[in-house]
Design a protein that fits this description.
Shape of chain B: elongated
Mean pLDDT of chain A: 92
Number of strands of chain B: 17
Radius of gyration of chain B: 25 Å
CATH superfamily of the largest domain in chain A: ATP-grasp fold, B domain
Largest sheet of chain A: 6 strands, antiparallel
Order of helices and strands of chain A: HHEHEEHEEEHEHHHEEE
Shape of chain A: globular
Helix content of chain A: 25-40%
Largest interface: A-B, 17 and 17 residues
CATH architecture of the largest domain in chain A: 2-Layer Sandwich
Oligomer: heterodimer
CATH topology of the largest domain in chain A: D-amino Acid Aminotransferase, Chain A, domain 1
Mean pLDDT of chain B: 95
Low-confidence stretches of chain B: none
CATH architecture of the largest domain in chain B: 3-Layer(aba) Sandwich
CATH superfamily of the largest domain in chain B: Succinyl-CoA synthetase domains
Strand content of chain A: 25-35%
Chain lengths: 233, 476
């Protein structure tokens, strides 16, 4: 797939391998993957205008090639109900980032729609030196970090692989719905897994991809954060 | 490099062979190939070796190019610094390909040795000549009588091919398979796999009419992606059983010095197994066990088993063994129970499935009762396969005194197999009478039955094959 003047070309032109969240989401959105809308804003006014456009409640996240874990440095503000909250959050974030990650180059903030909380899952890819892209699927949050409850498949996946990988994790009953909670939309998750597989297969220049978290709903699923890392040239 | 399929075929199915560098005292590479159906030549410069080679009746030449005939396979057993010269000679002679036994290349970790290997690879790739190895036992072809060990058979038949990165394991699996009645049509021991790699061999065997089942021992992958794709295109047609060496940190360190292989993370390996339907094995025993089920039974299509044990204790052991592998032991149909209930001795016995039936069919019982039980079970709709205990510990004295009773039992099993078309595997636990068990086992093997030394091994092998056919049916 060509990416003549898209996010990959932009990152390459800057000599970066880490795409910003806005770039990552743009790339995945173009590939037909359901991600929350994100727009880059470089001033408080910009941010308010973007939020007015996308709709409330809004989320702000710092955009910086130097910062991988945004929430650790005060670079994430959630559930902003109106323009004034967006403006205040913007200013708070700029001082927090300057204090907690001094010297980082900050391109602005990404203004996003606030997605309703769903069951958190992750979908990602890494590159194996022998097999090329390998896809990982798991429950999000502590399930993936502490229990390593993740299942893998070599890209490209077939429909049956997507079906199996979702059912292979130990936490699968959570997705089926427990204690009266509605289950997750497995068809939507499997479809997203196949889209990510196709994306990784079509983009050998992508070394790593993380959709973390993806919110799975009883009806549909959406990635609310995305991170793309390119291979060294 | 894309391997030239015709030349690879000549290498693996040679009509003429030259052994370069055969040495005393045993001249194994020549002696092993005495049965070879085509012309076999020796190439050796050393006058001391030549005398003995000619005394043994082999024709020797000083140089490969002096051999008057076209050569399909060169078996190269010279010391490593000489190998590039033999590779060049083989290219000049336009042979089909080479199997290089010589070792001491990248697997040593030495820079010089790795460079030497690179030179060989470069020469072969430039000329489009396939090389099996180096650092391997090379080629076995049952029909052609090309042998990588004196323990492998020459003859017709065989549907299984074994390919492996270790000579020991490739030869071991081949001879162990032979021992349990599975002739192996091809063996390929391919060591460092630097010119022809694992993906090439799988593709070759996928398309090979002499191969219906593939057994693999692998330590590392030279071309993981192509191997993955080659496997995916093979398993819907032919089952592939893979024993992966180097599953632990210590094992991975060993594979590095054995075949210069890079480790594959087990999570990725397990993904490959799930996606390709390749059947995993964790030892040469498991590999051959799975081959037994694949070759000696019809494809199992279901996990409900009839369990035919001889004693109460064994009926419990066999049930736990299959239960641990996710196999089922269903109740039988009322009609089956009615029929068997008419004659079955329930004092010290049971026929509810699992069966505990020695008292009904053995010394105290009527030997025709086994046939009556098996007839009834063969009509039962709840059964997909059978595990049958050949209780040598119980019956060996009787079978020694009245050998016809063992024949009769095997006839009955055969009849069940014929009538139902269902898979049936047998278990013979050696207990404390292993010397008595061997001749009995040979008779069971001679009748073409899968025979396992324990319930656990039977259950594991059967479940792996059942999983495979479920995969095939699902992948459709």
């Amino acid at each position: 797939m060509s990416d003549g003047n898209g996010p990959i070309a932009a990152a390459r032109a800057d000599g970066r391998t880490l795409l910003t969240e806005v770039e990552s989401k743009q790339l995945l959105h173009d590939a037909g993957i359901n991600v929350t809308q994100a727009r880059l804003a470089t001033s408080a006014d910009d941010a308010v205008a973007a939020a007015d456009d996308i709709g409330y409640p809004a989320v702000l996240k710092v955009v910086s090639g130097d910062i991988a874990h945004k929430s650790d440095v005060g670079g994430v503000e959630l559930n902003l109900g109106d323009g004034d909250s967006v403006r205040a959050a913007y200013d708070r974030m700029m001082s927090a980032v300057a204090e907690n990650a001094p010297g980082s180059s900050v391109d602005g903030v990404s203004v996003q729609q606030m997605a309703a909380q769903g069951t958190e899952v992750i979908i990602g890819t890494t590159t194996d030196p022998q097999f090329g892209p390998v896809l990982a699927f798991g429950l999000g949050g502590i399930m993936v970090e502490v229990l390593r409850d993740v299942a893998f498949r070599i890209v490209p996946l077939e429909a049956r692989d997507a079906r199996q990988v979702v059912r292979e994790i130990r936490g699968y009953p959570v997705l089926e719905g427990v204690r009266g909670q509605p289950g997750a939309d497995l068809d939507a998750l499997e479809a997203m897994i196949l889209q990510v597989s196709e994306f990784a297969n079509d983009h050998p220049e992508v070394a790593e991809l993380d959709l973390n978290p993806v919110f799975a709903y009883p009806d549909g699923a959406i990635a609310v954060d995305a991170r793309v890392v390119l291979a060294e040239e | 490099m894309a391997v030239d399929r015709d030349r690879l075929h000549r290498t693996l199915t040679p009509r003429s062979v030259a052994v370069v560098g055969a040495k005393g005292p045993d001249f194994g590479w020549l002696e092993n190939n005495r049965d070879f159906v085509g012309p076999l030549y020796s190439v050796q410069l050393d006058p001391n070796e030549i005398t003995e080679i000619e005394k043994r009746g082999f024709t020797n030449y000083l140089k490969l190019e002096e051999v008057p005939e076209d050569i399909d396979l060169v078996i190269c057993a010279v010391p490593r610094p000489i190998v590039p010269f033999i590779v060049s000679d083989s290219i000049k002679k336009n042979v089909g390909g080479m199997a290089i036994f010589s070792a001491g290349f990248a697997e040593t970790g030495e820079e010089e040795a790795t460079e030497l290997q690179d030179r060989i690879v470069q020469l072969a790739n430039d000329a489009g000549m396939p090389i099996v190895g180096p650092n391997c036992m090379g080629v076995y072809n049952r029909r052609q009588g090309v042998k990588f060990s004196d323990g492998v058979d020459h003859g017709d038949g065989g549907t299984v091919s074994i390919m492996g990165q270790s000579g020991t394991h490739t030869i071991g699996a081949t001879t162990m398979a032979q021992r349990v009645g599975i002739p192996v049509s091809r063996g390929i021991s391919f060591g460092n796999a630097v010119v022809v790699n694992e993906a090439d061999y799988i593709e070759y065997l996928r398309d090979d009419p002499d191969t219906q089942v593939i057994g693999v021992y692998l330590e590392g992958l030279k071309d993981g992606r192509r191997f993955f794709e080659a496997l995916r295109s093979t398993t819907p047609k032919k089952p592939v059983v893979i024993w992966k060496g180097g599953q632990t940190a210590a094992g991975q360190r060993a594979t590095r010095s054995h075949t210069a292989s890079l480790a594959t993370p087990m999570a990725t390996w397990n993904a490959l197994l799930a996606q390709t339907g390749a059947i995993p094995a964790n030892s040469v025993d498991e590999l051959v066990d799975v081959l037994q089920v694949l070759v000696h039974t019809t494809p199992p299509r279901g996990r409900r088993l009839a369990l035919m044990a001889m004693t109460g204790g064994q009926s419990v052991a066999i049930s736990d063994a299959v239960g641990r592998q996710g196999l089922e032991v269903p109740e039988l149909a009322d009609k089956t129970y009615e029929t068997i209930g008419e004659f079955f001795n329930v004092i010290g016995g049971s026929f509810r499935n699992p069966f505990d039936m020695a008292n009904t069919i053995g010394m105290a019982g009527d030997s025709a009762n086994l046939a009556r039980i098996m007839n009834a079970v063969s009509e039962d709709p709840n059964i997909d396969a059978m595990v049958f205990e050949v209780a040598a510990g119980f019956f060996s004295r009787m079978w020694r005194d009245e050998p016809e009773r063992l024949d009769e039992m095997l006839d009955t099993l055969d009849g069940f197999r014929e009538r139902t078309g269902l898979p049936i595997v047998t278990v013979m636990h050696a207990g404390a009478i292993d010397d008595e068990v061997i001749p009995i086992r040979d008779q069971v093997v001679a009748r073409g039955f899968a025979v396992f030394p324990s319930f656990d091994r039977a259950a594991l092998a059967l479940s792996r094959v059942i999983n495979y056919y479920e995969w095939v049916d699902e992948a459709g």
